[in-house]
Structures are given as C-alpha cells and as structure tokens.
C-alpha cells in the first residue's frame, strides 16, 4: 500500500495536470475564434477577380455616355466643302455648332462712321455671292463696332451704326437675288468685342460685319 506522503504527491500532480489541460483548452478556443474571424473577413473582402469585371463594366458604360459637346453633328457640316477654297483678303471663316461665320473687316465695306457700302465693299460681298446664293439656309448679318462713341444726326450711338451697316449688307444681298425670308440684320454695337478696346489693333478687330450661315434643320 502507498503511504500518506505518496498519495498526497500524486494528488498534487493530478491537480497540476488538470490546470495545465484547462489552460491549453482556453488557448485553443481563442485560436479557433481568431481563425473564424479571419475567414469571415476574407469572405467579405472583394477579391481582384471580382473587381475587374465591375470596373470593366463601368468603363464600358461610360464610353457609351454622350459627353456635352461631343458626338453632335454640326449643322454646318454640308457647308465645309464650299468654303475650303474661299480666300478673300480681310475675310476669315470660322465653323461652330451653330453654323459658319464669315467675318469681314469693316474697313473693307464702309468708310469710317458711315453705313453705305463702298465700291470695294460691294466687290467683297459680290465675291461671296456664289456661296451665299447656293446656300439654302438662313443668313444672319451682324454688325459690330468698337466702344468709341459716335453721335451724329443719323447715328446717335453705335447701336444705330451697327444696325444700319447690317441692313446695308442685307439689302445688297437681296439685290443679288437672295430671298428676304432667309436674311436678317442684327446690330450689336460694342457689346460683343473680340479683343480689348484699349488698343488700336483691338478696336480694329472689333469693328466688323459677320455673316452667320445656319443650315436649315430637316
């Protein structure tokens, strides 16, 4: 038989083993919880393969969205071939979404402070006659001045001067056979400058007559 001291020693070892086993069990439980948490996090995090199709779909959808100012067919598209060979000194051509603008220096058309077409001015408009006659859209003749005031009996301000110059060009176009229903005259005075009126060159650029050609919308 075992003596009392031996039994006591065995009981102490058994208690120590149970304590060690309890600590090991708690540690394994913590590891299991952490592993479960990582698995959940990985499941919730999007992978690279899932991002790629979504991104591709987004890019593809954006490519098909029309952006402002893009993908619109200009109304003046049919005028381009007719103005490519246009080469008249003092006359410039610009194209925009609203139409083609023929910009003419006022010194080619009028004497200073006057609204009657000079012989030279009539020649310039006459050179444009073939283009304007064949064109079947609307023609807006727009007069522009610099900001230097004018105050005469006939032209109390630049409003009257710019309007009278636009009307003079319209009347000449009528005599060339253009239908009045396709013409209009507009005077802008100095409200739409192209350059600063603080310089001579700027004021010269601002004194102009513009013919805006708008193609008829079907």
Automatic annotation (TrEMBL):
InterPro entries per record: Bact_OuterMem_StrucFunc, MotB-like_N_dom, OmpA-like, OmpA-like_sf
Membrane topology listed for this record: Single-pass membrane protein
Pfam family, any one: MotB_plug
Domain of life: Bacteria
SUPFAM superfamilies for this protein: OmpA-like (SSF103088)
Main location (coarse class): membrane
Cell compartment(s), UniProt: Cell membrane
OmpA-like domain mapped to chain residues: 97-217
Keywords noted in UniProt: Cell membrane, Membrane, Transmembrane, Transmembrane helix
Keyword Transmembrane found: yes
Keyword Transmembrane: yes
CDD domains, alphabetized: OmpA_C-like
Similarity comment text for this entry: Belongs to the MotB family.
Protein known as: OmpA family protein
Origin species: Halomonas dongshanensis
């Amino acid at each position: 038989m075992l003596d009392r001291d031996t039994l006591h020693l065995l009981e102490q070892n058994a208690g120590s083993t149970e304590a060690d086993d309890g600590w090991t069990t708690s540690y394994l439980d913590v590891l299991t919880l952490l592993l479960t948490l990582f698995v959940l996090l990985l499941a919730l995090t999007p992978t690279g393969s899932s991002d790629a199709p979504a991104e591709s779909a987004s890019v593809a959808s954006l490519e098909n969205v029309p952006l402002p100012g893009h993908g619109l067919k200009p109304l003046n598209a049919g005028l381009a071939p007719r103005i490519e060979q246009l080469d008249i000194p003092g006359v410039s051509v610009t194209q925009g979404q609203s139409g083609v603008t023929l910009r003419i220096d006022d010194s080619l058309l009028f004497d200073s402070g006057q609204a009657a077409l000079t012989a030279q001015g009539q020649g310039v408009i006459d050179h444009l006659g073939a283009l304007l006659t064949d064109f079947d859209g609307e023609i807006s003749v727009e007069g522009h001045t610099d900001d230097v005031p004018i105050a005469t009996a006939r032209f109390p301000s630049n409003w009257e001067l710019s309007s009278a110059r636009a009307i003079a060009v319209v009347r000449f176009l009528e005599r060339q056979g253009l239908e009045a229903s396709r013409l209009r005259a507009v005077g802008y005075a100095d409200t739409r400058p192209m350059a600063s009126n603080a310089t001579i060159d700027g004021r010269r650029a601002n004194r102009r007559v513009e013919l805006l050609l708008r193609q008829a919308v079907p």
